[in-house]
Design brief:
alpha/beta, homodimer
Chain lengths: 412, 412
Amino acid sequence: MGILAGMRVVESSAFVAVPLAGMTLAQMGADVIRFDLPQGGLDYTRWPVTRTGQSLFWAGLNKGKRSIAIDVKSPRGREIAQQIICADGPDAGLFITNLAVAGWTDHATLAAHRADICTVTLRGDRHGRPAVDYTVNPAVGFPSVTGPEDSRDPVAHALPAWDCIAGNMVVSGLLATERHRLRSGTGQAVDLTLKDVAAAMLGHLGIIGEVQINKTRREKAGNALYGAYGQDFICADGRRIMVVGLTKRQWKNLLAVTGMAEAAGALAQALGVDLADEGARWTARHAITALLAPWFAARRVADFADMFDRAGVTWSVFRTFEDALADDPDLSTDNPIFDTVTQPGIGSYLTPGLPFSFTRTPREAPAPAPLIGQHTEAILSDIARLPDTEIAALFDAGIVAQPSKSDLKLAS
Amino acid sequence: MGILAGMRVVESSAFVAVPLAGMTLAQMGADVIRFDLPQGGLDYTRWPVTRTGQSLFWAGLNKGKRSIAIDVKSPRGREIAQQIICADGPDAGLFITNLAVAGWTDHATLAAHRADICTVTLRGDRHGRPAVDYTVNPAVGFPSVTGPEDSRDPVAHALPAWDCIAGNMVVSGLLATERHRLRSGTGQAVDLTLKDVAAAMLGHLGIIGEVQINKTRREKAGNALYGAYGQDFICADGRRIMVVGLTKRQWKNLLAVTGMAEAAGALAQALGVDLADEGARWTARHAITALLAPWFAARRVADFADMFDRAGVTWSVFRTFEDALADDPDLSTDNPIFDTVTQPGIGSYLTPGLPFSFTRTPREAPAPAPLIGQHTEAILSDIARLPDTEIAALFDAGIVAQPSKSDLKLAS
């Protein structure tokens, strides 16, 4: 029983953010129902895909949900979908989407079916234009400060960070709204745009102040930690590591373990700065790096790894995804957030559950993503409360669908 | 009245994630109280700073909170802090931290004061080692796939994405736990690590499946959109833009507006692929880019911007932070999430409020960050319920502090 057991959320979504929100709610124990077109939606074949074309992306972002395959382009399909979204129960009537359509899943339409419906809608930008992580990120400026110091070209992040942030905000927006409904009796429409998530973060991180108050231009700084000391180094074995001297303690530990305290003192004196001040470490970072680089160049990671850990140095190696999965026990079933899960059509592989641990609600093993329409019959019967004869007629008319009996059997 | 009005959360934190969580809760209307050391904590002078050394970073991440300056290194300071964390009220007894200390802010200690206390603790990794965004990101592999195709060197993101994601997860973890407490009467300890947040995301995004099922290696792809079509181009005015053809509609719109439908058809025929398939667009991306590049090279952004918007093309320009703030109305008070706020000691500048809009709980203007200890007296009196004589004695003993009268006057 997850911490949200009893809550029901309906999702109409594609791509990263809202699917991630629904998956997070499902891994917290909510009953999350997603509408799928019988042939799959916009992101059903999104890369990465297996050699047989199954989307590892879709499987990853829809774990633990239930799926009803329903043709929401048909009027009857829409009516049934609205019934499901607006089904009664104090812990239901919650809807998240990035595919809101006026006249059928907008808040006003749904509120005619259930007055206290809560909807959270993620859009591209506040003007109603489409936007994705790949367009929002260049627009707000992060690629201009990413990449090597000597490069002029902008570098976009590979992690769809704004999607991941926005998805988690959809979760908190929904929980806050449901909390408010419980106290006030009123539901509401919550709107959020991907662009605004990024725009707001520029302010939260102090970047707007830097431009408007300091009138300075942030430069590219390679892999250096901005504003204090943190740098990547190449070791004798060719491996690259990152070390961090952000806090006074981290800085002291780093100097102690590399035997550089005295040399750093001499450097500080030569430069006329106090390296106990984090800003001074940032300004002097190239000189500090020059001091430390030979130390790392003369040693293999294995020569200092244990020593660094014992000394409380904040550091890590750079890995590829392949190396991380091969070498890091945190990316294995040694880590209780992971389990090996069999995803029908794909196979068995390492699968993350919820990264939270709650002391009173035991950890649940991650569940696979549903087959498209795996739960069509149960949802029509238990939630839309349709009689069996009508359910049969809907299947016959092609308004709803489910996997073949053999696929269903394999998945259950 | 924000959507969380009435809720009280106490925060002991530094750096990005947990301060961001508290700030988000405060912007949703919760009364968020942060403990500050009288001289400021670990991140009180974190860059970017103004010329006079005021942290724009700290101001950005602590907006709308209340601050009590209290020496939590003294036994009496800790007792009072525990009283404040564990003060009664059904909507209080909520604590978030990344600085948990055994014996004074761990869950078991706090639960002795208030049995239903809910705590959310963010740590570095599950082994108790410190970790920051700058070490977690290289460890899980994203820098290895970031940056130009021809580069071998890993590139770290400049946005502290894992911190931003984890901070928003702290918000949802707290709201889920408070919801559970309301129904069960029991509080609990919630734990989350920055490393696990990143490790889990590898799985959610399909990257673990790519390694373990496909046994393929993800390569760097510059600024290309992974898995479909999306690319940056240089225009005749020297500006760089990003265009996206992720969905069928986006792809069709892009070809239509650039007049490339026929040429793309010939290209598809020549390559023997169906470019209506997003994976085929990814595989053929270099050829598609070669087709489109001359079109952009011959045009200034102003030549096609309106046309692209009217045609529903998903695109954006690349900007620096400075350009974004100078040129983009979404980063100005035209956007209702922003306001001009005066931050004492820093000045007036564009400041983001909550990016959500809620139909039933009106938008509130963003508030500045507190001065260290701005609310010491009120919190000791109203929440710790200490008599005036004892409050005076605590000030005399230096266990609590507040700004000078003139600073307080300026801030209020």
